[in-house]
């Protein structure tokens, strides 16, 4: 990837505080690990998009950041103990797409690495895939639905505007759990995973299901060859379980967002004016409107540049928190958006191709589902083994991005 001015090379700096944890989630009786007590320091990072941002934004961003974090609390750890996944039945190949837009298998596979994707049809739903994926995770973990405390449904495309986590919880029979939806686009699974560990470490939860599920095909413009070739539908899930601090499987993490880049990737709510109900004097009494969302709009080049610059920085920050170098990581597992992005990040981190998990050739970009879907395949094929460390990173609309260094089991 060329070192695009102001994007790949750091432009104006922004500051954020690191290694401070959200206060509210912790119980006062827990104590602080000496090994994690680090001096609060300023961490310098590049602005996400557009060659940097003005100084006043930089200062505001520092003041309102989700960091600072306090030193990590120990006494309780969390680990991944099960995974599962599900994809729709209908397979759409690059050749199929070449029937509806001016493209070719060669163009798509060379530029993206994608060859096939799965698309929801008939009665299939995002929630249905989520349930199937979560069942796989529970079965692998040998945890009964009754023993789940929380279901985090990471999705940008719920079957219900108000979210579908509670319906997934109902259909799984997790009657002792509560559920909510988390929306952070293609970073959703990483956000959900880290959130789950916070509920375990600070909230006393035992078993948390984290599901990444999306049906972006519902919002794809199937006449736009720049976007319709990229996306597919799927669900993946992991069960995160409480364990002792010594066994803690979340070794480090790093999260970001920057709304300045929203213009590069979005599906905006739009109001459709309906007949106005007027009062007697003709003035509108109230304007009833129905909303829907536009199709996915993307500036692919900008998103590409953002990903290859910000994702390695984020992984490096999470590795530093974990006290690891990239050479100490067994697997690199990125959001599956484009093979060229995956390769560029691996090169930057000096990780050899045989340490990279990739299945986007078969499924395309499945948004919040892509990381747990690829993890599930890698675990079930025997590639990822108990005790392996994985550097996982999500990135996408928002813009949002983040990383987690995790140990499998
Ligand atoms: O979750 C995060 C979501 N998004 C991403 O990660 C996307 C990141 N970006 C990308 O993956 C790449 O930017 C794309 C794969 C979307 C596009 O690749 P590109 O190398 O950036 O191509 P481009 O948009 O610059 O287009 C190059 C040419 C253009 O033609 P001209 O203007 O040079 O004549 C496009 O019209 O390729 C044309 N083109 C296509 N040709 C055949 C764009 N899409 C297609 C297509 N088939 N599907």
TrEMBL record:
Every Beta-ketoacyl-[acyl-carrier-protein] synthase III N-terminal domain range: 180-259
Q: Does the keyword Lipid metabolism apply?
A: yes
EC number(s)? 2.3.1.180
Pathway, per record? Lipid metabolism; fatty acid biosynthesis
What Pfam family does this protein match (any one)?
ACP_syn_III
Listed transmembrane segments: none
Any one GO MF term held by the record is: 3-oxoacyl-[acyl-carrier-protein] synthase activity
Which CDD domains does the record match to this protein? KAS_III
Top enzyme class of this protein? Answer: transferase
| Keywords recorded for this protein, A-Z | Fatty acid biosynthesis, Fatty acid metabolism, Lipid biosynthesis, Lipid metabolism, Transferase
- What positions does the domain Beta-ketoacyl-[acyl-carrier-protein] synthase III C-terminal occupy? 319-408
Q: One biological-process term from Gene Ontology?
A: fatty acid biosynthetic process
Cite a GO CC annotation. Answer: chloroplast
Reaction(s) catalysed (UniProt annotation): malonyl-[ACP] + acetyl-CoA + H(+) = 3-oxobutanoyl-[ACP] + CO2 + CoA
Q: Which InterPro entries match?
A: ACP_syn_III_C, ACP_syn_III_N, FabH, Thiolase-like
Instruction: Give yes or no: UniProt keyword Membrane.
Output: no
List, alphabetically, the PANTHER family matched: 3-OXOACYL-[ACYL-CARRIER-PROTEIN] SYNTHASE, BETA-KETOACYL-[ACYL-CARRIER-PROTEIN] SYNTHASE III, CHLOROPLASTIC
Function of the protein: Catalyzes the condensation reaction of fatty acid synthesis by the addition to an acyl acceptor of two carbons from malonyl-ACP. KAS III catalyzes the first condensation reaction which initiates fatty acid synthesis and may therefore play a role in governing the total rate of fatty acid production. Possesses both acetoacetyl-ACP synthase and acetyl transacylase activities.
Per the record, the similarity remark reads:
Belongs to the thiolase-like superfamily. FabH family.
| Protein name, as recorded | beta-ketoacyl-[acyl-carrier-protein] synthase III
Native species: Elaeis guineensis var. tenera
Encoding gene, per UniProt annotation: LOC105056570
């Amino acid at each position: 990837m060329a070192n695009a001015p102001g994007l790949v090379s750091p432009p104006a700096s922004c500051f954020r505080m690191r290694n401070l944890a959200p206060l509210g989630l912790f119980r006062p009786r827990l104590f602080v690990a000496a090994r994690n007590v680090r001096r609060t320091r300023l961490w310098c990072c590049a602005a996400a998009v557009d060659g940097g941002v003005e100084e006043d934004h930089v200062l505001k961003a520092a003041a309102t950041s989700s960091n600072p974090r306090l030193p990590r609390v120990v006494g309780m750890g969390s680990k991944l103990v099960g995974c599962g996944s599900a994809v729709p039945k209908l397979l759409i190949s690059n050749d199929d797409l070449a029937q509806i837009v001016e493209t070719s298998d060669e163009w798509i596979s060379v530029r993206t690495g994608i060859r096939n994707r799965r698309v929801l049809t008939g009665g299939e739903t995002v929630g249905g895939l989520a349930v199937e994926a979560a069942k796989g995770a529970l079965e692998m973990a040998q945890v009964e639905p009754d023993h789940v405390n929380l279901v985090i449904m990471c999705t940008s495309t719920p079957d219900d505007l108000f979210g579908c986590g509670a319906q997934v919880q109902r259909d799984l029979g997790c009657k002792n759990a509560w559920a909510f939806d988390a929306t952070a686009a293609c970073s959703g699974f990483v956000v959900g995973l880290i959130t789950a560990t916070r509920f375990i470490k600070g909230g006393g939860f035992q078993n948390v299901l984290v599901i990444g599920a999306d049906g972006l095909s519902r919002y794809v413009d199937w006449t736009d060859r720049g976007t319709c070739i990229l996306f597919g539908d799927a669900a993946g899930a992991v069960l995160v379980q409480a364990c002792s601090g010594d066994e803690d499987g979340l070794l480090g993490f790093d999260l970001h967002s920057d709304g300045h880049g929203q213009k590069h990737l979005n599906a905006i709510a739009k109001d459709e004016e309906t007949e106005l109900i007027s009062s007697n004097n003709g003035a509108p009494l109230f304007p009833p409107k129905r909303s829907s969302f536009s199709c996915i709009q993307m500036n692919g080049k900008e998103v590409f540049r953002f990903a290859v610059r910000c994702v390695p920085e984020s992984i490096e920050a999470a590795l530093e928190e974990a006290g690891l170098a990239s050479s100490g990581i067994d697997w690199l597992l990125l959001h599956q958006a484009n093979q060229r992005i995956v390769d560029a990040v691996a090169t930057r981190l000096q990780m050899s191709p045989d340490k990279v998990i990739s299945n986007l050739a078969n499924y395309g970009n499945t948004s919040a589902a892509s990381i747990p879907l690829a993890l599930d395949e890698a675990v079930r094929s025997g590639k990822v083994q108990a005790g392996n460390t994985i550097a996982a990173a999500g990135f996408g609309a928002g813009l949002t991005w983040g990383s987690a260094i995790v140990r499998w089991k």
